[in-house]
Amino acid sequence: MKQLTIALAKGRLMDETIELLNKKGINIDYETNSRKLIFESKDTSIKFFIVRAQDVATYVEGNGADLGVAGLDVLTENKKDVFELMDLGIGKCSVVVAGKSSNYPDTPTQLKVATKFVNIADEFFAKKGMAIEIIKLYGSIELAGLIGLADCIVDIVSTGQTLKENGLCVIEEIMKSSAFLVANRVSYYTKNKEIARLLDLLK
User: Fold this and answer.
1) CA–CA separation, 101 vs 32, rounded Å?
2) pLDDT tens-digit readout, 17-28
3) What is the pTM of this model?
């Protein structure tokens, strides 16, 4: 059997992925405090790489990893050329438009939208025929809506608690998201037996 390599997004999604794999009989010893970027399953059939969530599909597309686990929101935003094999049913959240009120603010020319999901926001508002100006941010997106840097924000929510605590509410849901197992197009064929075995275990 050939060894599979899987890129994992560090953080909560990686913890959920490891928990899922352990439940499905793929035993993994990983200490949460470890600084290791590479580790293996106990039977060495799978090697894992820890990367940033936004980089998972880049590693998979570029043949740095056979497989990856990434949120559908990130996959949709980055538009990488990978196979989406399976919805793992973890990391569930929604991409939403949020603001200080539950309605879009009236702006004379165009809406200022703060987000890290530039492509998703662009496409969503284009379909609605709304003119927008994107303010690209990498963190604390809620703050932009609070202090008036933007009219509204596009961000992910899971429980919505962070929005509430910051005096914001959902205006509209753009899409639902969860974690998908994705594959490199070449690996899907050269390691088809190993990937098929993994998919059977995850069903």
Assistant:
1) 39
2) 999 999 999 999
3) 0.91
